[in-house]
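[Meeting: bench + compute handoff]

Bench side (C.D.) handed over the final construct sequence. Compute side (W.E.) agreed to return the predicted structure before the next meeting so the bench team could plan truncations. Sequence as handed over:
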Amino acid sequence: MSTDERAADPHATGPASRGTLPRLDLPVLGAIFVASAAALAFGASRYHLFGDELYFIGAGRHLSVSYADQGPVLPLLARVVTTLGASGEPGIGLLLFRLPAVLVTLAGLVFAALIAREMGGARLAQGLAAAAYATSTFLLLQGELLATNTIDTPLWVAITWCVVRWVRTRRDSLLLVAGVLTAVDMQVKWLIPVFWVCVAGAALADGPRDLLRRPLLWVGGAIAVVATVPALVWQAGNGWPYLQLTSQVADEMQYVGGRWLFVPIMLVMAGVLGLALVLFGLWALARSPRLRAYRFLGIAFVAMVVLFVITGGRPYYPAAVFPVLIAAGAVEFAAVRRTWVRWLAVPVAAVSAVVLVVSLPFTPESDIAPPTSTLDAGTKISVFGQFGWTELASATESAIEALPAADRPQAVVTESYWQAGALEHYGRGLPPVYSASRGYGYLGRPADAATTVLWVGSRDSRDTDSTCRDARPLRDVSPRLGFPGGSADLQLRLCHVRAPWSQLWEGLRHM
């Protein structure tokens, strides 16, 4: 097919030359973009701040080059949006707080379609790639929350687009851009090196080997390394807490099936249409001549999955590479000339859209059924992690106000970093709030003069035994939908500490 014929046929699919690409189908992509934006905006405006979001707000009060569990971008974003007036209250205040997440997620959708275009995909392939991204369980719906994954994933997609476009054009400036994006991503989360290690290994094994001989690739890598040095210095000075977190994640994965369920859970996150295209895309990258140049990316994905399974990573870690598999599957599917086969995409896309709509948070808070077990709360953590915070803050305020002035605590110490974030954000007139949990444990500790504290934790917590000379229960807190960082049933205790906090804190702090 000639270049003119390809331009005239909106469904034409095949390897694009260095100088030509199929038209970007703006009407189709625009419709998907607008629908996705509406769904994201609706979901982002519902309910309340999530536990991690409350932590980011707290961390944003202590700006740093690094944190125990992440880079500085999310705390900085939380600081910026709250400074600009995003209240985090249900409705427009919550949407404004999560607006960076919504915008970045929509950018990821665009890059997913652009990857399909780079591979030679025209209208059908671009539309399928964008629709699969828009209806995936993980890639789009995560955009309802301001979280590390929400920012990290679209950056992976943009980096992947740079690599795919470089394969087609051999413009080395793209590799420099990919390096700069990697440097940015390292300020969010520290998983992107796994992508580059697997891509480099796959390129070395299967080509294009000249990728590794491009000077600008290594210049971009050097930029990423230099940008990460402050965080590495911070980690080294604080005992490498991120390594402790990695071990903790591996332990936590045992409660959701561990290595045996890693791949099934990962695939479910692709959504209905996404799953079909991910699997078809893997096959296409391995077997299709038109996608031969991109086969190393399929190999890299498989290597990534194996690596995360071995190290006990979370199933959504490799999901950021789904778009390149989806794009490959969409391009190969669009190349099928049998009309009835093409029509199969319609019911699959319709089912995906229905699943997306059904999963949106239409249910009023008053109609949400409380979790029936810790497992139930854990599997629906993104829902239940948004409730119970105002009740916890109100109960804490009331408990302190009810105490005689001589007995009132000089600080509040919580068992979970979510609880600390909630009390700092929603509490009014509370003494300083601290937590030894996760990243909060590195934001500061109570002063040694704080000999009496209010302890917030589960009723069966053992930390009070090692911390408190005596701990008097004041009241229980059991919000109807509460899942405040590990327990729905909390107890507030008045604690008189055994020793100065400068001696106690290191033993309490944990990831």
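W.E. noted at the follow-up: The two ends are 58 Å apart (CA to CA). C.D. will use this when planning the next construct.
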